[in-house]
Amino acid sequence: MYVLRTGIAWRDVPTETVGCSGVTARRRLRDWTEAGVWPLLHAMLLTELRRAGLLGLDDCAADGSHIRALKGGITSVPHRSTARVLAPSTT
């Protein structure tokens, strides 16, 4: 969170702030992410909160974002033309 909040580079994180070098903190974050620690920790926390009666549907939130692709982005199918054209003659 410190790196996200301050925008500081990992190599510049003060050791006294996180208890280890920034490079070590980044390596541990990477290792724990690859090991699947965060989803497991999240599930365990939710289980404990439910068990203690501290979590219900009234305590949930949804978040999201939508960003327009200014250069058009990647399209999966060609767009159908919307230009005016004459219908084929049936006579």
Major sheet description: none
Residue share in helix? 40-55%
What is the count of β-strands? 0
Residue ranges: pLDDT <50 for 5 or more in a row? none
Radius of gyration: 25 Å
- The SSE order reads HHHH
Strand percentage, roughly? under 5%
Number of helices: 4
User: Averaged pLDDT, please?
Assistant: 85
The CA-CA distance between the termini, in Å, is: 72 Å
Would you tell me the structural class of the helices and strands? mainly alpha
Shape: elongated
Structure write-up:
By secondary structure, the chain is an all-alpha fold. The protein has a domain of 58 residues. Helices cover 41% and strands 0% of the residues. It is elongated, with a radius of gyration of 25 Å. 1% of the residues are buried. The model has no long low-confidence stretch (mean pLDDT 85).
List keywords for this structure.
91 residues, 4 helices, 41% helix, 0% strand
Question: Secondary-structure blueprint of this entry?
Answer:
Blueprint lengths: L1 H5 L8 H4 L3 H13 L2 H15 L40
Short description:
By secondary structure, the protein is an all-alpha fold. The protein has helices spanning 2-6, 15-18, 22-34, 37-51.
